[in-house]
Design goal:
Elements: E1 2-7, H1 15-25, E2 29-33, H2 44-49, E3 53-57, E4 65-69, E5 75-78, E6 92-97, E7 100-106, H3 116-135, E8 142-147, H4 171-182, E9 186-187, H5 188-192, E10 201-202, E11 214-215, E12 218-222, H6 224-227, E13 230-235, E14 251-255
Parallel strand pairs: 1-2, 7-8
Antiparallel strand pairs: 1-14, 2-4, 3-4, 5-6, 6-7, 8-12, 9-12, 10-11, 13-14
Helix pairs in contact: 3-4
The protein binds one DNA strand through loops.
Length: 258
DNA sequence: ATGGCTCCATACTGGAGA
């Protein structure tokens, strides 16, 4: 079973690229982020015609997350991250998808830091850690996939010295990610490729993709049951080179049938 | 330090992204 995550940076602006990539990569389950569309503008029919049933949580202009499946329709478990009834951003959706539990997340960017946006990011991370703790020991494989807006380590950014004060690379944020991976979650791509340079995002500015000035910020966290089934993973980086593409590339893992 | 690019809103400009 192939599971992918892709920050599309607008589901409607990206629809041709998304459909092209779906037919090429043929993932079984897909987590999408940054739909940038209200619920009623989600292109459900076009995605159905491509063979995928979807659940989504949209929002006008910003954020928005979805889960697609080629098999049966994902069974929604929740569409908000627990812990703050005041939080209006659409940044989390979770479902039962066949044999696994899958969460699609879009963590706040947090810039500029320090400031209220960074405070919101840290608060969101704290809620996420609490929720992740509730999921980690399930007997079922659990996969938490998405745009974490966290650069976990120096090797995950082209010039770490330029990012030290950025909300994606601040100590508090790296520490939160380190705590997650110390509490039973595994960063699947880093686990598969301990030494390699892996990027999932390249800025639209300054020919960042051409210069390979990238970041690794889209991640798969696996609980022990999911890790025991992990077979492969990678980044479809060539998609970042297509016309009218997102600034993120799709990332995927392959899970054995457990 | 800035700006470079792309997206959205209801707009010919500004906010957000990372």
């Amino acid at each position: 079973m192939k599971i992918a995550t892709y920050n599309v940076n607008s589901i409607n602006a990206r629809l041709p690229v998304l459909l092209r990539w779906l037919s090429e990569a043929a993932p079984d389950i897909v987590c999408l982020q940054e739909l940038k569309a209200p619920g009623e503008k989600f292109p459900e029919e076009a995605i159905l015609s491509a063979g995928y049933q979807s659940i989504w949580h949209g929002q006008k202009s910003w954020n928005g997350v979805a889960i697609l499946s080629r098999q049966e329709k994902p069974q929604e478990i929740r569409r908000v991250l627990p812990g703050d009834p005041e939080d209006t951003h659409s940044r989390y959706i979770e479902a039962d998808a066949g044999s696994i539990v899958i969460g699609s997340l879009y963590l706040p960017n947090g810039n500029p830091a320090p400031g209220p946006k960074f405070d919101y990011k840290l608060a969101w991370l704290e809620r996420f850690q609490i929720h992740a703790k509730a999921l980690v020991n399930m007997n079922k494989p659990v996969v938490l996939a998405g745009d974490y807006n966290i650069i976990p380590a120096d090797e995950d950014v082209y010039k770490p010295e330029r990012w030290v004060d950025d909300a994606l690379f601040r100590t508090e944020v790296k520490e939160a990610f380190r705590q997650l991976t110390g509490n039973g979650w595994t960063d699947a791509l880093r686990y598969l490729y301990p030494q390699q340079t892996i990027y999932t995002f390249w800025d639209y500015f300054r020919n960042a993709y051409g210069r390979n000035a990238g970041l690794r910020i889209d991640h798969f966290l696996l609980n022990p049951a999911a890790l025991s089934l992990l077979a492969a993973g990678g980044v479809d980086r060539h998609v970042r080179g297509w016309e009218k593409t997102s600034d993120h590339a799709p990332v995927w893992i392959e899970i054995k049938n457990g």
